[in-house]
From TrEMBL:
<feature type="binding site">
    <location>
        <position position="218"/>
    </location>
    <ligand>
        <name>an alpha-L-fucosyl-(1-&gt;2)-beta-D-galactosyl derivative</name>
    </ligand>
</feature>
<keyword id="KW-0479">Metal-binding</keyword>
<feature type="binding site">
    <location>
        <position position="196"/>
    </location>
    <ligand>
        <name>Mn(2+)</name>
    </ligand>
</feature>
<feature type="transmembrane region" description="Helical">
    <location>
        <begin position="12"/>
        <end position="29"/>
    </location>
</feature>
<feature type="binding site">
    <location>
        <position position="311"/>
    </location>
    <ligand>
        <name>an alpha-L-fucosyl-(1-&gt;2)-beta-D-galactosyl derivative</name>
    </ligand>
</feature>
<dbReference type="GO" id="GO:0032580">
    <property type="term" value="C:Golgi cisterna membrane"/>
</dbReference>
<feature type="binding site">
    <location>
        <position position="198"/>
    </location>
    <ligand>
        <name>Mn(2+)</name>
    </ligand>
</feature>
<feature type="binding site">
    <location>
        <begin position="196"/>
        <end position="198"/>
    </location>
    <ligand>
        <name>UDP-N-acetyl-alpha-D-galactosamine</name>
    </ligand>
</feature>
<feature type="active site" description="Nucleophile">
    <location>
        <position position="288"/>
    </location>
</feature>
<keyword id="KW-0472">Membrane</keyword>
<dbReference type="GO" id="GO:0046872">
    <property type="term" value="F:metal ion binding"/>
</dbReference>
<protein>
    <recommendedName>
        <fullName>N-acetyllactosaminide alpha-1,3-galactosyltransferase</fullName>
        <ecNumber>2.4.1.87</ecNumber>
    </recommendedName>
</protein>
<dbReference type="GO" id="GO:0047276">
    <property type="term" value="F:N-acetyllactosaminide 3-alpha-galactosyltransferase activity"/>
</dbReference>
<dbReference type="InterPro" id="IPR029044">
    <property type="entry name" value="Nucleotide-diphossugar_trans"/>
</dbReference>
<feature type="binding site">
    <location>
        <position position="288"/>
    </location>
    <ligand>
        <name>an alpha-L-fucosyl-(1-&gt;2)-beta-D-galactosyl derivative</name>
    </ligand>
</feature>
<dbReference type="GO" id="GO:0031982">
    <property type="term" value="C:vesicle"/>
</dbReference>
<keyword id="KW-0333">Golgi apparatus</keyword>
Length: 336
C-alpha cells in the first residue's frame, strides 16, 4: 500500500515536471502576442481616445443633427454640418502643428481636364489655414499646372508609369500610394487623405475630418438598403461581401487616416487585387470593392457624410456641400 502510493506520488511529480518543461519550450517558441493585439486594438478603437474626446471639450455632438444617422453601430462619428465646432477644431490642430498630406492621381486626360480645378479649389477649401503637402501623381510631370500656394503648403510631383486600362490605373493606385507612403509620406505628414481628381472643393473640408482611419459614405447609396449595395458578390474574389454583411457603401474617391493605417489599407487592398488577378477574377468596382471589404474588416474611426463628396443631385438632407463629384464623361475619358 505504502509503496504504490509513493510510486503514484513520483508519477505525479514526473508528469508535472514534464508539463512545466513543455510549457517553457512552448513559450520560447510562441511568445505571448502582445504587440499584435495592441496594433489591432489601435486600428479599430483608438479614435475614442484620440478623436471624440480630444481637446478641452468633446468636439462632436451627435444629437445636434436629428434627421440623419450621426453615429455608427460601433460608435464612430458620422460628420454632418452642425455636429462639430469648426473653430475649436482648427485651434486644436493648429496648436499641434499638424501636417496633412493629400494624394491625387491624374493620368492621361484626367490630368488635362481636372487637375487644375481640383488643386485650385483645394487651396480655397481643403484644410484651410493648416500645413498641407500635395502629392500629385501624374504620367507627365511637365503638364502639372503652376500654382500659387498659400504659406505652409507644398506640392510634390511624382511621375508614375501609365497603365493601359483605366481599371488597372485605378487598381495600381493602391500600389503607388502604398509605395509613396513607405518611402516618403510617413516621414512628412501626420494625417493623409487620398482623393480622386475629378472633383472640386466648394466648401469647408477641414481638420474635423482627421482621424486614425476615415471612410467616405457614397452619395448614391447612403439611403439605400444594404442588399442594394454594389459590393463584390462573387465568393471567388477577395473583395467578396455576402448579402447579409456590410455597414455602409464607401466611396473610393475619398479615404484617409494616419499614414501607417492608410499604408495597411493600400497593401491589404493590393493583396486582394493580386490574388484576384491570379484567380482570373476582377471585382465589380475594382479598387473600390476591395476598399469596402477592408473597411468591413477594419471599421473606420470616422465616417464622412455625403456632404464631403456629393454628386450634386438636389436632396433636402444635404444642407452643405463641401466637395462636388463631377459628372463623368466616361466614354471620352476612358477610351485611351
Ligand atoms: C448638442 O446639441 C443639442 C441640440 O442642439 C443641444 O441641446 C445640446 O445641448 C448639445 N450638447 C452639447 C454638449 O453641446
Ligand atoms: C514646405 O517647404 C518648405 C521649404 O522647403 C519647408 O520649410 C516647409 O516646412 C514645408 N512645409 C511642409 C508643410 O512640409
Ligand atoms: C494590416 O494590419 C493588420 C493588423 O495589425 C495586420 O494583421 C496585417 O498583416 C496588416 N496588413 C498588411 C498588408 O500590412
Amino acid at each position: 500500500m505504502q509503496v504504490t502510493l509513493d510510486i503514484n506520488k513520483q508519477m505525479v511529480f514526473v508528469v508535472l515536471l514534464f508539463m512545466a518543461v513543455l510549457s517553457v519550450v512552448y513559450l520560447s517558441y510562441h511568445p505571448p502576442r502582445l504587440t499584435t493585439q495592441v496594433v489591432k486594438k489601435k486600428l479599430q478603437f483608438d479614435w475614442r481616445k484620440n478623436d471624440v474626446h480630444s481637446g478641452t471639450q468633446s468636439w462632436f455632438n451627435s444629437s445636434a443633427v436629428t434627421d440623419q444617422q450621426t453615429l455608427t453601430s460601433w460608435g464612430a462619428p458620422i460628420l454632418w454640418e452642425g455636429t462639430f465646432n469648426p473653430v475649436e477644431r482648427d485651434e486644436f490642430y493648429s496648436k499641434k502643428k499638424t501636417v496633412i498630406g493629400l494624394t491625387v492621381f491624374a493620368i492621361g486626360r484626367y490630368l488635362d481636364r481636372y487637375l487644375k480645378d481640383f488643386l485650385e479649389s483645394a487651396e480655397q477649401h481643403f484644410m484651410k489655414g493648416h500645413r498641407v503637402i500635395y502629392y500629385v501623381m501624374v504620367d507627365i510631370a511637365s503638364k502639372v499646372p503652376a500654382l500659387q500656394l498659400s504659406p505652409g503648403r507644398n506640392l510634390t510631383v511624382i511621375e508614375v508609369p501609365r497603365q493601359s486600362r483605366w481599371q488597372d490605373i485605378s487598381m495600381m493606385r493602391m500600389q503607388q500610394i502604398g509605395d509613396l507612403i513607405q518611402d516618403q509620406i510617413r516621414f512628412e505628414v501626420t494625417y493623409l487623405f487620398c482623393f480622386d481628381v475629378d472633383q472640386v472643393f466648394v466648401g469647408r473640408f477641414g481638420v474635423e475630418a482627421l482621424a486614425y482611419s476615415v471612410a467616405q459614405i457614397h452619395s448614391a447609396f447612403f439611403a439605400a438598403n444594404r442588399n442594394k449595395f454594389t459590393y463584390e458578390r462573387s465568393p471567388k474574389s477577395a473583395a467578396y461581401i455576402a448579402l447579409d454583411e456590410g455597414d455602409f457603401y464607401y466611396h473610393a474617391a475619398v479615404f484617409g487616416g494616419r499614414p501607417d493605417l492608410v499604408l495597411n489599407l493600400t497593401r491589404t487592398c493590393l493583396e486582394g487585387i493580386i490574388r484576384d488577378k491570379s484567380n482570373k477574377v476582377e471585382a465589380v468596382w475594382h479598387d473600390e470593392s476591395h476598399l469596402n471589404r477592408y473597411f468591413l474588416d477594419h471599421k473606420p474611426a470616422k465616417l464622412l457624410s455625403p456632404e464631403y463628396c456629393w454628386d450634386l443631385m438636389p436632396a433636402k438632407h444635404i444642407r452643405y456641400v463641401r466637395l462636388k463629384w463631377l459628372p463623368k464623361d466616361y466614354k471620352k475619358l476612358r477610351d485611351n
